[in-house]
Amino acid sequence: MAALNLSKMDKHEIIAKVIEHGGKGITKCIQCNACASVCPVAKAGFPLYGRLLFRKLQTGHFEEIIEDPSSWACQACNRCTEICPRDAKPFEIVFAFRRIQAGELAISTSAFTPLMNLHATGHAVYSEASKELRQKVGLPPAPVTSVENAKAQEEIRTLLDNSPMSELGIF
Amino acid sequence: MAKVGVYVCHCGSNIGGVVDVEAVRKHAENLPDVVVSRQNLFMCSDPGQAMIRQDINDGIIDKVVVAACTPRTHEPIFRKVLEGEGLNKYLFEMANIRDQDSWVHANDKEGATLKAKQIVDSAVAKARNLRPLEDKYVDVTQAALVIGGGVAGIFSALELANMGNKVYLVEKEPSIGGVMAQLDKTFPTNDCSACILTPVMVDAGTHPNIELLTYSEIEAVEGYIGNFDVKIRKKQAYVDWEKCTGCGACADACPVRTPNDYNAGLDNRGAAYVHFPQAVPKKAVVDITSCINCGGRKIGSETRMSKKTGKPILAPCERACPAGAIDRTRAVDPYGDIIDVKVGAIVVATGFKVMDKEIFKNLASDSPNVLTALQLERLISATGPTGGQFLRPSDMKKPHTISFLSCIGSRDERHHTYCSRVCCMYMIKQAKLLKEKYPDLEIYMHFMDVRTPGKDFDEYYTGALDMGINIIRGRVGGIDKLPGDKLRVMAFDADLATNIEIDSDLVVMATAIELQDDIKPFAQKLSLTLDGSGFFKELHPKLKPVETAVEGIFLAGCCQGPKDIPDTVAQAKGAAAAAAVPLAQGRVKINPTISEIDSEKCSGCGICEPLCPYGAIAMITTDPSHPRARIEMTQCKGCGVCTTACPSSAIGLHGYTEDQIMAQIFALTA
Fold first, then answer.
1. CB neighbours of residue B669 within 10 Å
2. CB–CB of A3 and B501 under 8 A?
3. Nearest chain A alpha carbon to B442
4. Which of A4, A27, A55 sits opposite B465 (nearest CB)?
C-alpha cells in the first residue's frame, strides 16, 4: 500500500465541513481515545469510532469513510462528551459526520427502520412487546407520547416531511 | 576502661522485619566494656536520641555504638547528640545492620540476626579504641569563579555578587549571553529572548563586584574548597579592548568570510568581528585562525611604506578602526595572557551545544533546507542572517510547508538515550510564531509524544492544535529530496496506523542537547566526573543537585543536564546560594578523619607521594639528606591508600587507626 501523502489531502476542506455541520471540537482532539473507552459503538464491534474517526477527518479523509456505517450505531448516550479531557464534544463530531453522510445519501441500512418508525409513530425505537412489561409494573400499556396520539403523529410527520430528511425518499 | 552504650534500631520493619532486634540487643549486653544495651523502633527519632542523651548525661557511657542504617545519612545526627552532651563526637561508631544486612538477607532471618550480632561485635571492638578528634578549619578566599557566561553563569554571578562577593565571570566567547542570546523568542510566554536577557547581561557587565573575563578559558584549577588557585587564559583578541568601541568598522572592512557561529553557520562573518549587536562587552576580536593577513600585515611585522603614496601600508581592519585599536605591528603573544585568581568557590555553568545535523544522513541533512532548530531560531530572528525574514536557504523564497522533526539524536540508543527535555516546547514555540505571522503556512510536527512538563506548557501546546498546526504521532524515518527543492518527509501516523508522506519546503530537526566536544579535558582540570549521559554529575540527583564530588565546586544550567530557561535560572540561583555558604562562613571545616605522617618513623622513601589520588602528599626536602613526606590536610580525603602502602607504618589514618581496625578483625574472627 502506498503511503498516504498528507500534504495532498484536503484537510482544511473536510475540517471546515465538520465544523459547519456542528463538530466544532474536531481540531481539539489529542487522540487520547478516552471517548472510545466508554463508547457503545466500539463495544458493539463497529470499526470507525473515537479517535480514529476524528483522525481520519483531521487528515482530510472523505471518500474512504463516507459509507462507513459505524456512526449510525451511535446511541447518543453522550458519555464521550462527559469524559473528553479536551472538551472536544466527540458526540457532536459524530453527529456532524452523520449529517455529512446523510447529505451524501450515505445512510446505513440500520438507520432506515428507526427513521420509518419515527415517521409512522413518532418513536425511532418502539416495541409492541413493551406493552405487557409496562402493565406488569403497573404502568398504562402505552406511554403518554405520540404512540397513541394520532394528532401528535400527524404533527411529527408534517415536521419530517418538511425537513431535509424528506429528500431522502424513505418515508 | 571504656564505657560503651549500644543502641539497636528496628528502622520500622526495615531491620525489625528481618533481624531479631531483641536478640542482638541482648547479645551486645555481654560484650566487653558494654555497660548498657537498648533498642528503639527508630533510633533517629527524638525519643531514640533522647535515650543516648540520657545515658551520657547520667555518666553511664562515654562511647556510643548505634546499630542501624547507613552512616552516610545518619552519622551526622548521632554525632550531634554526642556533641550536644559535651562528649567528643568522634567517640561514635555506627554498625550498619540495614543496608549491609537486613536488606540483603531478607530471606534468611536467622542468618541476618547472626550477622547483625557480628557487625555489632566489630563496631563495639572499634568503639572501645576510639579516641577524641578535633575538627580543623581553614580560612576562605572571599571570591567566587563562575565558568560560563550564558544565562546560568550570568545569574549565578549576579547572585553571588549581590551578596557582596567578588566574582570572576569567565566566558570563552567574546561576549556573555550564551545560547539564550541566539534565541528569537522564549516559551511559553513568547517574550523576546534578547529583550529579557540584555538587561541582565548589562547588569553583569557593569556590576562593581563582577570582573568579566570574556574570550577567556580556564587553564588550570588547583587547591580545594575555600582556596582554589585558578589560572585563566585571556585569549589574544588582537584588538586593544581599552580603545575598541565595538563599532564594527573592522568587521565591515574585513574581506574574510568564515562561518558565523552566532548565526549557527547560516551566514559568514569576517576574521575581524563583533560577536553580536547586543554583545557585552561590545568589543571586536580578530580570529587569527581565519585571518589572511591582508597586505602582508602579519602580526608583529614591521610597517612598510607605500612607494606610491608614501603612507604606511595597513590591513583593512587597521585602516577602518576609528579608535586605533588595531595595530598589527605590535607583537603580541598569540597564546594570550594568563590571569591568576584565588577563589573560595566555583560555579560551573558551561552550558551545552546542540548536535550537528550532518550525521543524520537519512534525513537529507546535506540539503540546505534541512535546518537544526537553533538555525531556524536564527533564521526568524531580527538579528539573524535574513534580518528576521522567513526565507529558506536554498532559494531565499518563503516556504509554504514546513515539517518539524522531534527526538533527533535524543531517545535513541545510537546517539543519546535521554530526552533533551526542551525540544517539544521550543518546536511548538517556533511553529506557533510562524503560524501566527503566516497563517497560510502548512505546519506538520512529528512527535513520539509531546512532552510539556512545566507551568503553562500544556496549554501552550493545545493552543498550537487550536491554531491548526498538524501534530502527528510517530517518528520520521527518512527524507527524500524531490526535484524543485521539495523534501519528502517519510513518516508514520500512529493514530491512522499508516505510512504518511509530506512534501515540505523546509525541515526543522530538534537535534539533541549534548556537551561540547572538548568537555572531558575541561572536566579533568576540575576533577569533575561526567554521568552516563555525558553531563556533569551532581553529588546526589535529588538532595544535592548543584553540588559535585569536589567540595566547593557547584553546577548550574545545562552542563548538569538538559533544561529550559526557568529551570536553568532557578538552578543558577541555587548553585550561587550553595557556593555562597563557604564564603559566608569565612572558614571551612576539615574533616579530622584524615591521614597524618609520623616524621620520626618516615624514611623519606617517597612511595606514598605518587599513590595519593588527591595530590595531598609532598616530599619536604629542607634537609636534603633526610627527605620527609608531608600531607596537606586540606587536600587529604582520608582514603587510606598511603597508610597501607607505607613500608615503615609511619602513616596513620585518624578514626581508622591500626589498633582500631585490628580490634574489629579480631572481633569478627574470634
1. 8
2. yes
3. A7
4. A27
For A3, the closest of B462, B465, B490 (CB atoms) is B490
One domain, residues A99 and A19? yes
**CATH number of the B595-653 domain:** 3.30.70.20
To which residue does cell 591508600 refer? Answer: B641
Fold assignment, B353-514: FAD/NAD(P)-binding domain (3.50.50)
Residue A79 structural domain: 8-103
Residue of chain A whose Cα is closest to the Cα of B504: A7
The pLDDT score that the predictor gives to residue B326 is 96
ipTM value of the model?
Answer: 0.76
Chain B contact present for A4, CB below 8 A: yes
Task: Report the alpha-carbon distance of residue B505 to residue B327 in Å, rounded.
Answer: 47
At B328-374, the pLDDT tens digits run 999 999 999 999 999 999 999 999 999 999 999 999 999 999 999 99
Q: How far, CA to CA in Å, does B147 sit from each of A133, B216, B307, B522, B563? A: 84, 10, 50, 11, 18
Query: Do residue B495 and residue A11 have CB atoms under 8 angstroms apart?
Result: no
What whole-number distance in Å separates Cα of residue B112 and Cα of residue B106? 8
Is residue A1 within 8 angstroms of chain B, CB to CB? yes
- Write a three-state SS string for B178-198: CHHHHCCEECCCCEEHHHHHH
Residues of A in contact with B468 (CB under 8 A): 12, 15, 27
B58 CB-near residues (< 8 Å, 6+ apart): none
Residue at a domain's end among A75, A103, A131: A103
Contact check, Cβ <8 Å, A4/B503: no
Buried b (16+ CB within 10 A) or exposed e, B270-279: bbbbbbbebb
As a whole number of angstroms, the distance between CA B149 and CA B176 comes to: 5
Q: Which of B325, B223, B227 is nearest to B274 (CA)?
A: B325
Per-residue confidence (pLDDT) for residue A1, from 0 to 100 = 61
Rounded CA separation B204/B195 (Å): 15
Chain A residues closer than 8 Å to B504 by CB: 7
Fold (topology level) of B145-233+338-350+532-585: FAD/NAD(P)-binding domain (3.50.50)
pLDDT reading at B484 higher than 70: yes
Report the chain B residue with the minimal C-alpha distance to residue A88: B466
Q: Chain B partners of A12 at a C-beta cutoff of 8 Å?
A: 468
Smallest CA-to-CA distance from B181 within B108, B276, B81 is with B276
CB pairs under 8 A between A and B: 57
Secondary structure class of B555 (helix, strand, coil): strand
Any idea which of A41-55, A135-149, B565-579 has the lowest mean pLDDT?
Answer: A135-149
